[in-house]
Amino acid sequence: MYDKTHIAMNRSVKIIMTMLAGLLLLPFSADAQRQSGIVAHRGFWNCDEAGYAKNSVAALRCAQEAGFWGSEFDVNMTSDGVLIVYHDSDVEGKKIEKYPYAEFKDFKIKNGETIPTIDQYLEQGKKYPETMLVYELKPHSCDEVEDRFVELTIAKLKEHGLLDPQRVMFISFSLHMCEVLAKELPDFTVQFLGSSKSPDELAERGINGVDFNHAVYKIHRKWYRQARSHGMSVNAWTVNKEKDMAKMFKMGVDQLTTDNPLEARELMKKMKIKEL
Fold this sequence. Notes:
12 strands, TIM Barrel, alpha/beta
């Protein structure tokens, strides 16, 4: 009798432990994680004060003044090693990587600013310590060029007193640069933007964050669970429709990147989710 009871108890314990292990892998719901950060995509450009100019210094300032958790910006490198804040890989047909900075220094963006250098951008960035600078490194032609890009990025952040994981995080579609940053700066959040690798594969490479397009989480339903099982930071881009924002907030993302940060703020209030 004792043996049968003992066996039954062991089976019960195993079942309970299995259930608990499964719960740990479930995605957080809005009930479990009722807080998130809004990232203004290319700054808070979508307003009069910024002149509707993406990646402008004014857009960064507006994001800071509005109190959003973070402000995202895109960085490219010229042939002579100048880092400029610009989304596309070319300006009026000229490949940024193939031409010196002199070819781009007078080009005006939508609000009349010239394309910001990383120095100009970081000077504004350090004025608001509470705003996370979400630094996107745009892919370049080869690993050698990307290594130089990462090296210059780290040097510039040091120069401006911003090489701090509480001030800056990194995102990129370049798996190579994500791996290099994760190795060189292990205390920093590094999020891979592409969908070519699963969170399991990224974790094996030492990358500690994911920033997938919001549709990817629907296509690869297990990836959110995978990311959480590895303790990864989870972001979603670029989420502009309210219904998609609601899905991401319910899922429990750490950050949500959007061109409509004010709308995201209002939705969070409705959903009773704390804005970080």
